[in-house]
């Protein structure tokens, strides 16, 4: 019997040594570790400006439900609010308002726009997005989610926002 126990003891010992060696081995640093450290350092620039408008403030400026269309809020955070536009259970578009105070470059792209919607500088962004800049600060955007929802539809829905009310927000 002692001959049978010796291999079991040896196997057990080898397993313990193996666990100790692999468990105590130094871990290689994550490629994201340095970025995480830099983004959380004191004095790091915050992603969203303290002056940015709360997302909940934007909700009252979105177009209301009606005529078979349903607006479903999907995201709300400081400086941003977004809603889905649905009809007959089908996602047609994403509607959003964002405060460009945190990202001035977003507002600068409207400076030389030859296009206007409801009196505000407008841009077509790719084949699926239309945006305007209200009061040199708030970007109102409609993003098509359905191929049948084109530039004319996006412009129509931008005009349904309470742009006058939004322009008075500061």
Q: What general form does the structure show? A: elongated
Q: From the structure provided, what is the oligomeric state, counting identical versus distinct chains? A: single chain
Structural class, by secondary structure, is alpha+beta
Q: Number of DSSP strands?
A: 7
What number is the mean pLDDT?
87
Signal peptide: 1-25
Keywords: Signal
Biased composition (Polar residues): 30-43
Region (Disordered): 30-60
Helix-strand layout with pairing:
Layout: H1 2-23, H2 33-40, E1 69-77, E2 80-87, E3 90-99, H3 104-108, E4 115-117, E5 120-125, E6 129-134, E7 138-144, H4 151-160, H5 163-167
Antiparallel strand pairs: 1-2, 2-3, 3-7, 4-5, 5-6, 6-7
Describe the structure in your own words.
Keywords: Signal. Residues 1-25 form the signal peptide. The chain is of the alpha+beta class and 170 residues long. The protein has 2 domains: 2-40, no CATH class; 55-167, Protein Transport Mog1p, Chain A (3-Layer(aba) Sandwich). The chain has 5 helices and 7 strands, in the order ααβββαββββαα. It has helices spanning 2-23, 33-40, 104-108, 151-160, 163-167, and strands spanning 69-77, 80-87, 90-99, 115-117, 120-125, 129-134, 138-144. The chain has a 7-stranded antiparallel β-sheet with strand order 1-2-3-7-6-5-4. A hairpin with a 3-residue loop joins β6 (129-134) and β7. The radius of gyration is 27 Å and the shape is elongated. The model has no long low-confidence stretch (mean pLDDT 87).
